[in-house]
Fold:
Amino acid sequence: ADRWVPDSGYDIVNNTASFRVLRPNKGYLSVKTKVIDLGGGLYRYHYFVEAYDYHAGLSALRVPMQSGTSVSQYEFNDVDDSPLNNWLMNNTGNTLQFNAQQNNFIHWGTGYTYSVTLNQSPVTGAVQLTGEQAEGEFWVPALVPLTDLIFADGF
Structure:
């Protein structure tokens, strides 16, 4: 995943982002985002979530999105070929929720990829991760499908 995103931070020109964060007493994890403009108002979002040396395990990814966003073509990739433990996606209308199935958490030294096509361009923001072992929910910077409200009226 490091080949297609910057080492750290946002690269708005290339629609990529990469952030490695330290969770106290748990370790490092990272979220990398690459968004491809497909034309015609469609964007392919790729999120790579990695538990670098984060030992608590991750069980959920939530991506805030603009209400009314069209969602299609969800794909999930992990370290095995079993479709029985693939993370499921739930569209709540203003959030995409990706949830672990059958205890298929993101554990130390592994990373999973979530890809989806949306009709909303990316802006800087954050995604929410859920850690296991009483780690709870926390936010990590990423590109997200929200409207930049400052410029929503075209000013």
Notes: DSSP finds no helices and eleven strands in the chain. The CA atoms of residues 26 and 125 lie 23 Å apart. The longest strand covers residues 27-39.
